[in-house]
Amino acid sequence: MSHDMSEEKLPESHGSAGEVADHGDPFADPGLPAHEPRRTDIDERAAKRAERQVSLMFVISMLATVGFIASYVAIDPDKIVYIFPLGHVSALNFALGMTLGVALFLIGAGAVHWARTLMSDVEMPAERHPIEADDEVRADVIQQFRTGAAESGFGRRKMIRNTLIGSMALVPLSGVVLLRDLGPLPEKKLKDTGWKEATPQKPLQLINMSTNSPMTADDIVIGSLTFAMPQGLHTHDEDFQQRIAKDALMLVRIAPEDIKDDTSKELGFQGILAYSKICTHVGCPISLYEQQTHHALCPCHQSTFDLADGARVIFGPAGHPLPQLKITTDEKGFLVATGDFDEPVGPSYWERAR
C-alpha cells in the first residue's frame, strides 16, 4: 500500500527545535541588559575619591616627565649601576626608561580609570544608516556629542581636566630633549676653517695633497683638478681627518674669458679658482670635474656646480654654491690664501646666514 509522504504527519519535535518553534526567530536581538549604576554614580564621595585618584596619576606623570629631563641633564652617560635583577646597566638609560615609562603609563591609566568610574557607561545602540547622513542625523550626533561631553565631566571636573592637560603638555618635552642627542651643536665650529689663520700680511701657502709641497701658478693647468690643504696641516696630525673635513680645497684653472662671475674672477688668480671641496648638500667630498663644461659633480647625490659661474648649483639637492677662497701668489711665486672662505663650508645649518 503506497503512502503520500507529503501528507504523512511527522512526529512532533522536542528540545531546541521545540523552543525555536515556541520562541520564534533564534537570531532576534536580545537587547541590552538592564543598566546597573556604579558606586560613583550614586555616591558623590566615591566620585570625588575617583577624581582625586585620576588627578594624582596625571600629577605623578608630570613629575615623571620632569624627572626624565632632570635625569638627562644630571646623570653622566658613562655611569654604570647595578640594578637587580637586570645586573649592570647604564644609569642614564635606566632613569630615562623608567621616568618616561611611568609618565606615559599613568596618562593611560588615569584616562582608563576616569572612563570606568566617572564617565557615562550607558550603552546607546544605534541602527545602521547610510554613510551620508541627513540633517536630522547630524543634529542628533552633535547633540549626543554634547551630552557625552557633559556626562564625562571634562568641564565640570576641573582638577582632572587641568592635570590631564598638564601631563599631556609635558610628555612631548621628553622627545624634544632627546633631540639633543642628534649630535653636538655646531656653534661656530663650521663657521671658520684652518684658512682663517691667513691674512694679507701673513698668507698661507696652498699645499698639494698629492705631493705635500707648495704650488706655483704654473703647476695648475687648464682642465685639471687639483686638491690642496693649508700650510701647517700634516697628514700625520692626530686631528688631521677632523680638520681636512673643513679645509679641503679644490683648484681649477679656467680661461679668464670663460669665467662668467666677476666676483669669482676677482677671488681667483689668473683664472685659477679655489673652491671648498665639501659639497653643500650633506658634506661629501667632490671629486669629479668635467673640463669642457667646467662642472663639478658630487658623487654622493649628483649635485652639480658650475665652477665658471661662482660654483652655483645647476642640478641636484645642494642648497647653495660652493664657498670660494681668495688666492694670490707670494714673493716666491707660490699660491697662497689671504683669508678664510667667503662663507661657512658644507651643508646648511640653523646658525648660518643661508
Please describe what this structure looks like:
With 354 residues, the protein is an alpha+beta fold. It folds into 2 domains: 138 residues; 144 residues, Rieske [2Fe-2S] iron-sulphur domain (Rieske Iron-sulfur Protein, 3-layer Sandwich). It has 9 helices and 13 strands. Strands 11-6-5-4-3-13-12 form a 7-stranded antiparallel sheet. A hairpin with a 5-residue loop joins strand 9 and strand 10. Helix 3 packs antiparallel against helix 4 and helix 3 runs parallel beside helix 6. The longest helix has 31 residues.
* Overall residue-averaged pLDDT value: 85
Here the CATH topology of the largest domain equals Rieske Iron-sulfur Protein
Structural class: alpha+beta
Molecular shape: elongated
Query: What characterizes the major β-sheet?
Result: 7 strands, antiparallel
Helix content: 25-40%
Domain module tally: 2
CATH superfamily of the largest domain: Rieske [2Fe-2S] iron-sulphur domain
H/E series, N to C? HHHEEHHHHEEHEHEEEEEEEE
Measured between the Cα atoms of the first and last residue, the distance is 108 Å
CATH architecture of the largest domain: 3-layer Sandwich
Oligomer: single chain
GO molecular function: 2 iron, 2 sulfur cluster binding; metal ion binding; monooxygenase activity; oxidoreductase activity, acting on paired donors, with incorporation or reduction of molecular oxygen
Keywords: 2Fe-2S, Cell membrane, Disulfide bond, Electron transport, Iron, Iron-sulfur, Membrane, Metal-binding, Oxidoreductase, Respiratory chain, Transmembrane, Transmembrane helix, Transport
Protein name: Cytochrome bc1 complex Rieske iron-sulfur subunit
Subcellular location: Cell membrane
